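User: I've been trying to design a sequence by hand for this structure and keep getting stuck. Would you show me what you'd pick, starting by listing the structure so we're on the same page?

Assistant: Good idea, let's start from the same input. This is the structure you sent:
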């Protein structure tokens, strides 16, 4: 049986506007929205970016892939 790296990896998507606003600390945001998903590293070697709903910003924002 072949043993090797699994092409599917688990990635974390984080809200980009919450990260920028947490540095300013002027927004009433109390956290950073994060989603967990999987990607195929052979098909998508670049970082993922999706528009997802952020429950702290109360709107759809860009969520980008972060390092663990």
């Amino acid at each position: 049986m072949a043993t090797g790296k699994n092409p599917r990896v688990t990635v974390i998507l984080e809200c980009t506007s919450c990260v920028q606003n947490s540095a300013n600390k002027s927004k009433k945001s109390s956290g950073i929205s994060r989603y967990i998903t999987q990607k195929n590293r052979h098909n998508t070697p670049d970082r993922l970016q999706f528009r997802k709903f952020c429950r702290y910003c109360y709107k759809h924002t860009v969520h980008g892939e972060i390092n663990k």
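That's my pick for every position. To get oriented when you compare it with your attempt: The mean pLDDT is 85. DSSP finds one helix and four strands in the chain.
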